[in-house]
Specification:
mainly alpha
Length: 106
């Protein structure tokens, strides 16, 4: 049987694991929304109101009109994944960078 202190320690670890998972999942979930929202319609209101502001505050500073670190410009990158395989691969690579915690830098 687990002692009360072991149970408390286990809950603390569970809280840490959940917090870490949520921290690492927020950007992949955001990127998934970007990929699906813009793939349906370039003028998608949801993307313009909900997703782009997040990209603008976390990504565009380094990957936008003024700077293109890594030769990547996200504000103009197509989200037509059916007809633009290169753009789809670029978004996928960006997603991988986010999942690995390499982007966005702190």
């Amino acid at each position: 049987m687990l002692s009360e202190s072991a149970f408390s320690s286990k809950n603390g670890n569970l809280h840490l694991v959940l917090r870490t998972c949520l921290h690492h999942l927020r950007y992949p979930v955001l990127l998934f929304w970007v990929l699906t929202a813009r793939a349906e319609s370039p003028k998608n209101l949801f993307f313009e109101e909900k997703i782009f502001p997040i990209l603008d505050s976390h990504c565009i500073k380094c990957h936008g009109p003024e700077k293109q670190k890594g030769d990547l410009r996200l504000d103009l990158l197509s989200t037509d994944f059916l007809n633009d395989r290169g753009a789809a691969e670029t978004w996928h690579d960006a997603s991988d960078q986010i999942k690995l915690g390499e982007m966005p830098p702190e």
